[in-house]
Amino acid sequence: MFVDTAKIFVRSGDGGDGAVSFRREKYVPLGGPDGGDGGKGGNVVLIVDTNMTTLLDFAYRKKYAAEKGGNGSGSKCSGKNGEDLYIKVPLGTVVKDVSSNKIMADLSHAGDRCLVARGGKGGRGNVRFTTSIRQAPNFAEPGMPGEERYIGLELKILADVGLVGFPNVGKSTLLSVVTKATPKIANYHFTTLSPNLGVVDVPGIKSFVMADIPGIIEGAAEGVGLGTEFLRHIERTRVLIHVVDISGIEGRNPVDDFVKINDELKKYDVKLWDRPQIIAANKADMLYDDKSFENFKNELKKLGYTKVFKISCATMSGIKELMQETAKMLVSIPVVDIEINEEDRFVPEEKKFTYNVRKEGNVYIVEGSFVDRLLDSVNVNDPDELRYFYKVLKNKGVIEELENKGIKDGDVVRLNDFEFDYVM
User: What is the CATH number of domain 5-155?
Assistant: First the structure.
């Protein structure tokens, strides 16, 4: 089963919490703080596996989560870092962030990898909060949460040469006679329902990878037939071999077929239409004379295409010359990665804790992820921790924003379930 698209959910590990701990030592207040930091959460990383050929694995497993960081402990012991999670994907996978539809990476080389979810930072233990006037802090920091997102995976096959053309013109047969590939071959349309790959290894020429791309007919760019389902797989090819049925046994004009397929390539991506093409006039063994081929060749010359080969997959005539010309063209055409425009590139945002201040009657409400994290890290019933709590509110600009909104002495400030009277 060939699967070339998938959507999965990934979550990195949360950071471990810092520890509140005190050592027992004579003449040291409360024994002295020695709470260690929490460990970092594990990352989620995609890595290329050259042994994979489809995204079939992701049809059965949709959710992936990395390990959480361990909590800190006494004696200034830090928690264990969470293990990174490595997810294997086939060569040629394009990774997208689903929510923004922006490209995170193009994994088109062996060994390529992409960090798709960064692990949360570990929280600081209470030993980190000691000052000259706060020698025994009874609070620590919780770990930072990990990242989570849906990512889209799209496989774009890595092939040097792509075979295009109407169904039943002999693309699969050509692939089978020049490689060891064994595609399904039969005398009806849409025999090939998924791309087939093969390595061309003809004596005297450098080997190259060829792909038989199914599903291109008139209207394919708008979804007719197999639609655009497999057009993505010729985006990476450097040369296209356009196979045409020169015999006309199906009642179609070979020149019209050629023009229609090129129109579909242009509608899908103008860069495909501009790609170098070699025309393979197949089924030449069924022609009564050479006049039909010469007329076809002259018509294509008027359209600007000069590399036209008369071939027959049944008799193997012209096949070697076609492959030699293909190999010769590949030498002068460099391998180019998919171009990613800056506006289409995913840029990870630094995780920030935010808050919002609003007023309901005489109550000023502060809410948001900043509030949740702050309340998790302190015990507001402890005077020492309450002073730290107020200091953080002031440093982060919360007090200033409350004053800008007109707060007065005695007004109530609410942060989740915690309320206090404001005093200037």
Answer: 2.70.210.12
d(CA 5, CA 237): 19
The CA distance from 174 to 220, in Å, is 22
**DSSP string for 304-369:** T---EEE--TTT-TTHHHHHHHHHHHHHTS---PPP--GGGB--PPPP----EEEEETTEEEEESH
pLDDT at 227 (0 to 100) = 45
pTM for the complete prediction? 0.74
The two tokens of residue 10 are 């990934």
Binding positions are: 165-172, 190-194, 212-215, 282-285, 312-314
Please give the Cα distance from 161 to 159 (Å, whole number): 6
Rounded Cα distance between 231 and 224, Å, is: 12
The CATH class of the 161-331 domain is: alpha beta
In 3D, which of 357, 385, 355, 387 has the Cα closest to residue 368? Answer: 355
Beta bridge partners of 47: 88, 113
Residue showing tokens 């025999």: 191
For domain 356-421, give the fold.
GMP Synthetase; Chain A, domain 3 (3.30.300)
Tally of residues, the chain: 424
Annotated binding site for GTP: 165-172, 190-194, 212-215, 282-285, 312-314
Domain borders along the chain are 5-155, 161-331, 356-421
Q: Pull the structure tokens for residue 424.
A: 């200037």
| Residue set of the binding site for Mg(2+) | 172, 192
User: Tens of pLDDT along 17-58?
Assistant: 999 888 877 776 657 888 999 999 999 999 999 888 788 889
Looking up tokens 């393979």 gives 280
For the chain, residues with pLDDT lower than 70 are: 1-3, 28-30, 181-195, 215-233, 269-273, 336, 424
